[in-house]
Amino acid sequence: MELDGRKNGQTPATKIRVQDLSVVYGRSQALFDVSLEIRAHSVTALIGPSGCGKSTFLRSLNRMNELIDGCRTSGRVDLDGEDVYGPGVDVVTLRRRVGMVFQRPNPFPRPIFDNVAYGPRLYGVRDRRTLADVVEWALTQAALWDEVKDRLGTSALELSGGQQQRLCIARALAVEPDVLLMDEPASALDPISTAKIEDLIQQLKERLTVVIVTHNMQQAGRIADETAFFLNGHLVEFDRTDRLFERPRDRRTEAYITGRFG
Ligand SMILES: Nc1ncnc2c1ncn2[C@@H]1O[C@H](COP(=O)(O)OP(=O)(O)OP(=O)(O)O)[C@@H](O)[C@H]1O
Bridge partners of 211? Predict the structure, then answer.
């Protein structure tokens, strides 16, 4: 099934439309009827206290939740107007279009080059020149090329934590996704590496759409166009980041951003 068309009357600016999304793990419900729209070429931050469902929401956007035993999802997630849970959707293609970067850098214990070439190889690229070009392009996009171009054959595990995380971003970018899901990508990093990742995210949104979970409200304020505040599995408020932080409409949002709980 093609996922590219703009259907169901969505405006071109809507990249992902979530309607009445609920997620259950076994007997415990993690998300309750969440609806929101994510604009193309924007950065959307998901904030809220631990356990409120941010990662669950993120994983439901590219069906990563399905890898968890006992996890059931209902509702609708449209990507460019097509339901990603619809019959006939190829999950491999979906996850190629909607890539993911995790909290802890998780490079493979393989050379830097192979880490980035992994996805393109998986999707059938064999030509060495083409692979080399893709690797250079993705590492440049991830602001890592200059630091590693002379040691592409060394193990990714020899890189610093911040470099490893940019490598993981390069690995995700190498298959040219149009959405990048990031689950607290900078929480394990020092302030300088964090600033690099934040700069990178700002640049990436020219190419793609970013959805990021963060515990760091200053970070959401710096990088996100829109912010969603979750509490106990409910989406409490979703608005432009400046409005959500300066004039929250819900007192629970206000309590959270002013540090009164969470
Ligand atoms: N694999 C799983 N199996 C069972 N329950 C899970 C699983 N993952 C998450 N949950 C539960 O779902 C709820 C939401 O968890 P989730 O990880 O989505 O929250 P979160 O807001 O991302 O939390 P944190 O900020 O601590 O990462 C929690 O009650 C959690 O215990």
Answer: 44, 181
Interior angle at CA 142, CA 136 and CA 147, nearest 5: 70
Cα-to-centroid distance, 38 and ligand 1 (Å): 22
Digit-coded pLDDT (tens) for 204-237: 999 999 999 999 999 999 999 999 999 999 999 9
What's the structural domain count of the chain? 1
| Ligand 1 pocket residue status of 56, Cβ below 6 Å | yes
- Please tell me if the CB atom of residue 53 comes closer than 6 angstroms to any atom of ligand 1: yes
**30 C-alpha vs ligand 1 centroid, how far in Å?**
7
> Is residue 92 one of the residues assigned to a domain?
yes
Whether residue 25 has pLDDT greater than 60: yes
Give a yes or no: residue 50 inside a domain. Answer: yes
Alpha-carbon gap, residue 3 to 33, rounded angstroms? 24
What pLDDT is recorded for position 2?
39
Domain encompassing residue 65: 14-107+176-257
Q: Ligand 1: which residue has its CA nearest to atom 26?
A: 50
> Is the CB of 51 inside a 6 Å radius of any atom of ligand 1?
yes
Model-level pTM?
0.92
Residue pair 143/200 in contact by the 8 Å Cβ criterion: yes
ipTM of the complex, rounded to two decimals: 0.96
In angstroms, what is the span from residue 55 Cα to ligand 1's centroid?
Answer: 7
pLDDT digits (tens, 9 = 90+) for 134-170: 999 999 989 899 999 999 999 999 999 999 999 999 9
Rounded to an integer, the average pLDDT of 84-102 is: 94
Residue 188: the pLDDT is: 82
Q: Ligand 1 centroid to 29 CA: how many Å?
A: 10
Q: Which residues contact 61 (CB under 8 A, 6 or more apart)?
A: 16, 18, 77, 79, 84, 98, 179, 181, 211
